[in-house]
Amino acid sequence: MNELQVLLEKVWISKEEDKEQYYQVKRKIPLFQELVQKQLGWRLIHTEKLIKIEKTPARAEQFMGIAAFNDVMDYCFLCAVLMFLEDKEEEERFLLSELIAFVEVQLKEAISIDWTQFSQRKSLVRVLRYLEDLRAVHVYEGSSEGFGQDIGREVLYKNTGLSRYLATMFPYSIADCQGYEDFEKKEPEEDPAAQRVHRVYRQLLTCPAVYWEEETEPDALYIKNQRTWITRKLAGTVGGRLDIHRRSAFWMLEEGETWGRVHPGEGMLGEVVLLVCENLQRRIKDGTYSLDSAQRVGLRLDALHALIAEVRRRYASYWSKEFREMSEARLCHFVVQYMEDWMLAQRNADDPEHMVWIMPAAGKLRGEYTEKGETKA
């Protein structure tokens, strides 16, 4: 894994956590600085304590977010904790009870906080553990997990000063933003051509796919016309290749290259999805399903569930015990969720027809079992 790949994969590289890696990446910054700042339009932060790339995506996608968080409340608590740490000096110690009192005051108009509720205490614990893992705070005495079990548990922390670099610095006021859509509508003061370059490179690096409905869309034209330049800039820094199709483009890792999150992963679920994609591709090939002008297949949710059930009946004997014994409803939920996260499928939660659109990415990979029961992708 090269230095830019490490920066893309991590929130930041802390000198305290890995001094050798910090200096190794620092020496290589000139090799990728132009790509980060000019093509991606990202802010590269380099201090005596850390190196970080502010990885702002082209647009919000369903799979994005902090993996350790599983509730909106986690993000609310994170914002409040960052505000609390902003007023603390570097190396200053503070008690959990101080932090709790601050969070209650800051969020009282947005959330009804009741620390007797286990779910709320666990939410705050997830935030504190996340900040501990990032070395933004150190536990000096006690344990964050203890608060999840006992509301009266006290913990002594130390502020490292790194938390000030966690929140993204936007080049415009966000005071009137109420949702992620408002952030997407805000455009920095730069020419449209630069915005398009940033949008394309960000989408290629941070998302499984880039889609367009019309071949004359600006992003599609840029990708097709500048494919040689895009390949040269990205392949020389992060590796991989650019695949362009009629209504989509993908930055693909070559065989043997692995960094970040990849599909399929090592888990059983990715294997199941490969088998589902093989079934879908076969039905398109034999004419059972037809592609629309955007190279998609539209299926009702119950039809996709039936297809997943068919895959299960055919291949379940090769699966792990967990997936063999999983209920059909639970299996379908996990498969559809995975496909949405990897932009293999899209659906509108408000659609009364419960349609699922199978996207072009579902045609990129497929899986089948060998005679030994191993998956061949």
Task: Name the descriptors.
single chain, about 375 residues, alpha+beta, Arc Repressor Mutant, subunit A, three-stranded antiparallel beta sheet, 14 helices, about 45% helix, about 15% strand
- Helix and strand pattern: HEHEEHEHHEHEHHEHHEEHEHHHEEEE
- N/C terminus separation: 23 Å
What's the total helix number? 14
Uncertain residue segments: none
The major sheet is characterized as: 3 strands, antiparallel
Strand order of the largest sheet: 1-3-2
Percent in strands: 5-15%
Rg: 23 Å
**Which overall shape is indicated by the principal axes computed on the Cα atoms?**
globular
Structural class label: alpha+beta
In the residues, how many domains can be counted? 3
Mean pLDDT: 91
Number of strands: 14
- Classify the helix fraction into a percent range: 40-55%
Describe the structure.
The protein has 377 residues and is an alpha+beta fold. The chain has three domains: 3-56 and 171-252, no CATH class; 72-165, Arc Repressor Mutant, subunit A (Orthogonal Bundle), CATH 1.10.10; 268-376, Orthogonal Bundle (Arc Repressor Mutant, subunit A). Helix content is 44%, strand content 13%. The protein has helices spanning 3-9, 19-39, 72-86, 96-107, 118-133, 145-149, 180-185, 192-206, 218-225, 227-235, 268-285, 301-315, 321-325, 328-341, and strands at 13-14, 43-46, 50-54, 93-95, 137-141, 156-159, 210-211, 241-244, 248-252, 297-300, 345-347, 355-358, 368-369, 375-376. The protein has a three-stranded antiparallel β-sheet with strand order 1-3-2, with helices on one face. The protein has a three-stranded antiparallel β-sheet with strand order 4-6-5. A three-stranded antiparallel β-sheet has the order 7-9-8. The two termini are 23 Å apart. The model has no long low-confidence stretch (mean pLDDT 91).
